[in-house]
Amino acid sequence: MSKAEERALERFPVHEGASKEWTEMHLKSVCAEYIEGYHQAEKDSELTWEDMRELYIIFAEVDTEIELNMTNITAETLGYYQEVLKRFKDFKERKKK
């Protein structure tokens, strides 16, 4: 059973004592939309090579800003990674539009 099917069953549980055939039918019909949406969300959240390139650029920008004392962030700290993540999320939002 796929992760999507497991999540669908959590959200739309099969009645206790249901036959295997009914359970399969339930997964294919009642949960099909949920499973399709789950798979689409997984695809949407996958990193692409473009995303990796952008992350590389963002890391380089933040590192440069640190070297030039343009920010009070310290390299390789929680704040450093939070800033990179914030910029990456901003990039993803702009890319959607």
Textual characterization of the structure:
The protein has 97 residues and is mainly alpha-helical. The protein folds into two domains: 3-45, no CATH class; 49-96, no CATH class. Helix content is 73%, strand content 0%. It has five helices and no strands. Helix 1 (3-11) packs across helix 3 and helix 4 packs across helix 5. The longest helix has 19 residues, at 49-67. It is elongated and about 65 Å long. The chain starts with a helix and ends with a helix.
Element layout with pairings:
Layout: H1 3-11, H2 20-29, H3 32-45, H4 49-67, H5 78-96
Helix pairs in contact: 1-3, 4-5
Q: Quick check: average pLDDT?
A: 83
Strand content is: under 5%
Following the backbone from N to C, one meets helices and strands in this order, namely: HHHHH
> Termini distance?
36 Å
Largest sheet: none
Q: Based on DSSP secondary structure assignment, what is the total number of beta strands?
A: 0
Q: Provide the structure class.
A: mainly alpha
Helical coverage, percent range: over 70%
Rg, Å, rounded: 21 Å
How many separate domains? 2
Low-confidence stretches: none
What characteristic shape results from the CA principal axes? elongated
Number of helices: 5
Quaternary organisation of the protein chains:
single chain
